[in-house]
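Exercise 7. Given the components listed, write out the predicted structure of the assembled complex. Treat all entries as one system.
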Amino acid sequence: MAEKVLVKGNEALAEAAILSGCRHYFGYPITPQTEIAAYMAKRMPKVGGVFLQAESELAAANMVFGAAGAGARALTSSSSPGISLKAEALSYIAGCDLPCVVVNIVRAGPGLGGIQPAQSDYYQATKGHGHGDYQMIVLAPSSVQEIIHLTADAFDLADLYRMPVMIMGDGMLGQMMEPVEFDLGERRKLPEKDWATTGTDMKRKHNIINSLIMNPDDLEACVRARYERYEQIKATEARAEEYMITAYGTTARIVKNAIVELRKKGIKVGLVRPITLWPFPEATYKKYADKVSAILSVEMSMGQMVDDVRLAVNDKVPVHFYGRTGGNIPYPDEIIKAMEEIAGGDK
Amino acid sequence: MQQVFKKPNALCDVNLHYCPGCTHGIVHRLVAEVLDELGIEGKAIGVAPVGCSVFAYDYWECDMQQAAHGRAPAVATGIKRVHPDKVVFTYQGDGDLASIGTAETVHAAMRGENITIIFINNAIYGMTGGQMAPTSLPGQVTQTSPYGRDPKTQGYPVRMSEMLAQTDGAAYIERVSVDCVKNVNNAKKAIKKAFQTQLDGKGFSLVEVLSTCPTNWGKSPIEALDWLRENMIPYYPLGVKKDKTTEE
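Answer.
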């Protein structure tokens, strides 16, 4: 067993990336994720890696595009406004079927918004970042320990399915210190990157990394093949914890406290916590749709994931929403009140 | 029979899509000849831009990656940092390099990024059908400067080579032209020196190539060459703008 150490979420993520074999980090400062860049600036030179502070988030994400094409495990991190800028490169990375990991330590928006914790980028992360028909896998850790495991998973999933993977947290998770073990556990076997630009050495035909396909039928076929892969990911990779108030990330931890109190009050309630936001763990919700009398989605947004919950249960059970936004964090008391109102209304 | 002329090995045996009289084909060939002569096709990785040369990934036999509009120097940086022992180059037009990608270009130069950029300056946006470029000359008529570029409202053309020569990280910057045989020969020498600069690990190298766009200039290929000579060269003087390659 590895030694327990006390570490910040952002720094745990950076170290987990290095332990996962990431040697190329490209970033640009933005609160509340800058500890990732600062940690990488210190650590990368010591492990023979590259830390590069780019001139913009645009450039940083496009450097990741280049490094990923060249076959490296590449990482960039940012917070909401910066992710909007990285969206361009994410579309190209997805269009070229390249693996990479991008971190969004979400802050409240829109615009410059604030720097307090928020989950108001759920739509952006799961429905649309850059242009075009594509998806990213989105992982939502809710503890520093889980950040470490999901960072390792993120690099593996990216390499396995040749697509960008996002780790989505918030300022609370990024800044919080918790005791953790840096043990990545057993990892999966991954395919060779025989498609990468490494130089032909005059021994093979040239590799071309490209998303420009001018023939509509060819482009459609390429997109459809990608979506077939997405179906496979939905079937095999969606993960959730199984209960009945539903929340992810930081919010899920607050919900757990509320659930303890609600159970004391005799309300039978559990938590469904999506760990993958895309693919959304629809099967878990479907399984419970017949067994629960109501679902409450709690988010640090005006209600984004709740749409996916409603789609998953398909009107079999009423889906309610409680949220705070702007950087406000829901207190357990507020969640208890919201759940009591729903439970009371059902009587 | 003795063979006196052939297609360079590094150039793919395909039809180029460029318009008649366009000078992209000449510059593609020069790059391929240099890859051959330096024996670096197998270790070269090229980055294709967005613009008329968007399909450049199909034209050289080396590994190639596409970039978004303007981002080629950032993509090349990513590749070079993964493979510092390979030869990484971008091929970009003026809209790509001097407008939407100005930040990426300037900062790659300031970092002294050990890459080579071939910069095609034809004073117009070609692929989108002839709009004003950052390099369009004062008075030049284009789709988006139908009364001629007026510096009072549309700004002045940018001399990228002179600008980049000011950066400490730039090792070798030269402006050349492909309007006549003599200048084509000089252009090849400059391109070769730029790649050699990278091979020697000296830092950022860029060759700006004054080029023609007969289609969007509304001229015959020969008129276009004359127009380049008479109008572009006076505004964009040829020559070496920066050379740190002899420094230790």
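Discussion: The two ends of chain A are 49 Å apart (CA to CA). Chain A has a mean pLDDT of 94.
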